[in-house]
Every structure is written in C-alpha cells, then in structure tokens.
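Two folds, back to back.
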Amino acid sequence: SDIFSKRVMRAATVLRPTRSVAKDLMRLFDDDRLMLAMSFQTKYLGMSPFNCPSLFTILAFLEYEYGIFHPTGGLGSVPVRMAEIAEEMGVQFRLGEAVEEVIMDGKTAVGVRTEKEVLMADRVIVNADFANAMTSIVPNKSRKRWTDKKLESKKYSCSTYMLYLGVDRTYDVPHHQIYASEDYVGNLEDIEKHHRLSWDDPSVYVQNACVTDPGLAPEGCSTVYVLVPVSHQTENIDWSKESSKFRERILDQIESKLGYENIRDHIVTEMSMTPDDWGDHCYRGAVFNLAHGLDQMLWRRPRNKFEDVKNMYLVGGGTHPGSGLPVIFESARISSKLVLDDLGIKPDWNGVETWFENVRRSPNGRKAQRSMPTAKETGTPTNA
C-alpha cells in the first residue's frame, strides 16, 4: 500500500512519527516557554503534546510561517457562504429536521429517515460526529469493524468548557490570547489522565475578535469567546453542580491574567457549553472526536469511504485527515471526490483557480483579515 511505500518509509526516518510532539521538540529547545509556544497547537486536536504524534509539529510551522486569517463576520460566515453557493448549484437544505435512521438494504445504505419523511439516495454522506452518528442512526448489526462495543473501547479527545459573552465595552487586548497554566503538565494530566477539573490555575484561550472585526458587535461593544480545555464526559465531574462555580473561576482567570478587567459588570448576553451539552451531539462530549494517537490514525481511523457500510461516506474529525476546521474541510474534499468517482461523474477541473476569484473575501466583498501576524512579519515568533 502507499502507506508502506519507500518514499513514506524514508520520510518516517526524518519525521519520527513514533515520538510525541514534546519529545521531538526537546531535541531543539531547552526553554520551556519556547517548547510551549511550539506545542500548544496540539490542543487544536484535543490532545496533550506529550501524547500527540510529532507529525503535528507542522501546525506550529503553519501558524508562524503563514499567520492566521479571520473571515469577516466570523467563522460562521464561511459555512453560510458555502451553503449559498451550494443552493445556487441546486442543493436543497432541510434544517431543523433531525435524521433518525440510516435506511439499510443489507449492508448498503439506501437513504435516511428523518423526523418528517423518508429520503432515498444513491449515496449517503454522514458529516455528524462519527461515534455519535454510528451509535444513534446506523444499526449496530450493519457495522462489522466499528461496532458499539468497539467504539466504547476507543480513545477520545478532550472536551471544552465554553463561554460566549456579549459585553457592553471594548478591551484593548489582542484578538487571540492563550494563558498556559503555571503547572501546565499537571493541567494536562487533570484533563487526559485523571479526568478532573483544574481549579487552581486552569489554562484558557480567549478570543477578542472585535479588535479585528468590529462589525461582530454593536458600536462600543464586543464579543468575547472563552475556551477552556477540560476532560470529556466522566463520572468524576458533575457539571450540573460544577458549572456555575467553574464559570466564576474562569472569569477570575481572564480578569487577572488576560486584561479583561471587571468583565462581570459588562456582560450583557451570555451562553455557556459544558461537556454534557456537547454530549448531545458528540460522543462523550469529545469535541475533537477520536483521539489522534498513532493507534487511531492512518488505516486505523474510519475511512472517508466507510468500510462497514456500502455507499456511505464520512466527513469530519472522525475520519481522514482528522480534527480542526481546515482539516475537516479537506475531509469534505476527499469524500466529495470519492463520491464523484464512484458515480462516474467527472467535473471539468480546468480553470478551477478561477471558480472562486474572491478567495478570502466575505459575502460583502471585504477581504478576510489577519488576526495574527506571521513570524516573518514580526521578526520573532508571534506572541499568542
């Protein structure tokens, strides 16, 4: 197979995929701060740098080499625009109509049953959380490799505690801020090993997007997005009891560590999400899906052309290449090409570079803006 080709095996001797990100970086850096600056990106996969394969050091390179872009209107504007383009091409969206079951004919998917009707199809594409979809809408008897029992035994990513805040003032702080716990290793072990909350000094990411994109809030106001890595659902944490206390701890943290003075006095609107809330649609509330260890990557990960069910395809963090929004978009491209090939449809790819001439533009024509400069532009690694 291509996985064991001479070219790949030669690359493996250089990339050292069996090492963790942390262990690989130890060859290059002595300063713990530099190690952290080059490894916190593993959280994009819901993993600790001590467990994440060294292949993912590429994430830090991409950030510091190319910077980060913010689409005007926020990330939510991207799927909205994609949906508009799809509708122009004849796609019909049925929103608020939950799928209750994938209809099977033996081992072949032939359609779906929604809460309103039955829709027959030549191909079925599942873009929901993989494990949650398998255990809720695909019959267990139809799955040979990815049975309910097998899914229960797999390793899953961490979850997140989220605060989405609307505040009646602006803050002179960067678009992106990451505060790393003084006991960073202990914080990671609480999340992945002990499955308990870190109360003393939790790590937290805060996004102040209005500093780049003021149109996200009324004049003089801001949106503040707070993400705290926490364990996926576990019997050790009762979120019905801990959520309100943890909220206070996190607000203390961003006030004292990241410059959001007296933020409680300025909150106008608020929404929170715990692993239990994520668990309604994500297996165990693991928002980054199956963990990305070597034992669950490559041929050990569910395939885009799903191996257990004929005529079914997967999209999302549970299949190839893995989690993270750009990577998930790539999984959609992989699966769409597989569907087209299997249906014998050959699009004219000539001139594909002109199909979306307004690349990195929002629906109103404004360009996407950089929310973090590149290392080349600053002359130093970016202060996140």
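---
second:
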Amino acid sequence: MTNATDIAGLPGRRSSHGSELVLAGLGVALACVAPFWLNGYGLYLLTLTAIFAIVALGLNLLTGYAGQISLCHAALFGVGAYATALLTSKAGWPYLVSLPVGALLTTAIGAAVAVPALRLKNLYLAIATLGFGVVLQKTIFEWRSLTGGGGGLSLAPPTIAGHELGATGLYYLALAFLVLGLWGAWNLSRGRTGRALRLIKESEIAAASLGIHIARYKVTAFAVSAFYTAIAGGLFAYLVRYINPESFNVGLSIGFLSMIVIGGLGTIGGSIVGALFYVVVPELLRGIKDAPGLVFGVVLVMVMVFMPQGLWGMARRFLGRR
C-alpha cells in the first residue's frame, strides 16, 4: 500500500487546466457587464445558463473525471430547489441561509445514493441512479402536505437584508456561485482528488494498487456533485418562481449529461460551453417546429462520434492548445 506521495505524483493536466481557467475568466468578465446590454428575457436566459453551468461543473466532476454515470441529477436538482424553497417560504429562513443548508441536505442524499451503488459501473450504475431519481421525484410528488404535490409551489421573490432580489440581483448571485464553483472545480481537479478520480476512471485496479481508497473517492465525487447541483436547484427555484415535481424528470437528467458530453467530458470550460449550447441553441431555433430537438440530437451524435473531447476540445485544438 502506497502513501499520499504516490498519489500526488500521478500525472496532472496543468497546461490544459491553465488554458481553461484563462478563457473561463474572460467569459466571466464578459458576463459581469452583460446585464447592461441584455433585455429582460436575455437576462433570464443568461441566468439559466449560469445555473445549468453550475450543474454541469458538478456532474463533470462525477462523470467526466470519476467516470460515474448518473441519471438522478434532475431529482437532486429538484431536491435542492424544494429544500431551498421550503426553508425560505415556510420556515422563514433567509434565502442566503436556505440555499447552502438545502444544498447540504441534498449532499447527504447524494452520498447516500452513492454508497449502495459503489460496486456498479456503466449501464448498471446508470439504471441504479435512474431508479433513485424516480424514487426521489415520486417522494416529492407524494409528500403533498409539505411540497404541494402535483400542484407545485409558487414562490415570492427572495429578499436579502430586507431588499427584494430582482432579476439582475439573482443573475449576479448565480454568477457569483458559478465563479465559486469554477474555483472549487479548478482546485479539486488539479489536486490530489482530481488525479485520484481520473485514475479511478481509467483503472480501479491500478488506483487500488496505489493506495487510493476507491469507495471514499466515489462517495466524495457523488457528494460534491450533489452539492453543486443543489445550489443550482435553489437558484433555479427563484428564477422561475414556480416548481413542480414533474419538471425534474429523467429527461432533464439526460439533458444534463448531454451538456457535458457536448461541451467536453473532464473539462471545466466544457461545462460552460455545454450549458450555453443547451440553453441558447433551442432558443435560436424555437420558431422552427421540432428543430431544437432535432439539431440537439444530431449535434450530440456528431460530438460523440467525431469530437469525443467535445466542443471545448475542438476549440482548444483549433487554437493550438493541447
């Protein structure tokens, strides 16, 4: 059994991470001034993109780095949304307190999901997480006394320090959490945990031979991913101001996975690109019947066949960054 020095010596990906961080930083800088030239609906779409990018960051840590497929992330997104909404609207907690507390509750659920699924891989893991997702969604639907069931929950605008948080304020809050998420994912992926997760994805036998505690890292990946997803869910609840259990179905989980595949598995920048593609492309094509779904499906297949590193990887190759 080897010590931590062996794990620390695993090959990193510093150069690729560096290019991702620089370009992501430029994108965030541009995002900071976006509200000055966007209309209300444009700001809504950009806020939604930031929220989905947070989900993609967390899911990429789990799937792109650790190789663990999850089809329950829409349900975790919903749990985060409901937990934040209920703590704020029914318990009377401040929104900025409800958001992280709701995320921590969801993190515990994410870790609980991971434990019985530790020995599962690939299709079996996907089916198991799909089952967990259905159970979570059904629980939200049936717990009518708390969640409102199929009638959903209508929410008033959140307040911070007695001031109502409008569309612009919520956008900057989502952007702030996205920046924190980028920083967290950057540090996690380039450190010992990221190297261990990548080795687990490549070969669990090799990882175990280096003294990596596979179960611990898998549970950690699920928990961190659930935390990211729940934060995004809490932001989403107050962006749309109405949540319903049916919104958090397996179709959304597949959409989340498609974001990181199209953007680029195992890349930080790919999470941003994938979320932007997922939100913007259907919007651009919404005037053409059935076009958004068709184009999205075609692009997804083309990326998987011809661009396995995603749009982010293609952009890096075009710019000469390896």
